[in-house]
Amino acid sequence: MLRYTEMEVKETRKRIKSSRGQSSWFIAERNRLMIMLLTDTGLRISELENLHSDDFTERDIFISRGKGKEDRVVYTSETEIEV
């Protein structure tokens, strides 16, 4: 499994934040949220790609057909809830 240091995660978030002037606001916010979800919850990229709005509740995310074709629940942090 590939692991990122806290510094690498912060640098990635910083670069996304600074790219807001280079792309539309929506795309920059989408990218920021995707990185936050991947780093804060441990979601796999394939799980992120398959998410739908009804998979989200106030405090968690329902992952259907994750690794091993099993369903699971991933809990979100206060940061994702604010976004």
UniProtKB/TrEMBL annotation:
InterPro entries in the record, alphabetically?
DNA_brk_join_enz (IPR011010), Integrase-like_cat_sf (IPR013762), Integrase_catalytic (IPR002104)
Keyword Acetylation found: no
Record GO biological process: DNA integration; DNA recombination
- UniProt keyword list: DNA recombination
List, alphabetically, the PROSITE patterns matched: TYR_RECOMBINASE (PS51898)
Q: Does the keyword Metal-binding apply?
A: no
Q: Which domain of life is it from?
A: Bacteria
Please name the GO terms that the record assigns under molecular function: DNA binding
Start and end residues of each Tyr recombinase domain: 1-83
Q: What is this protein called?
A: Tyr recombinase domain-containing protein
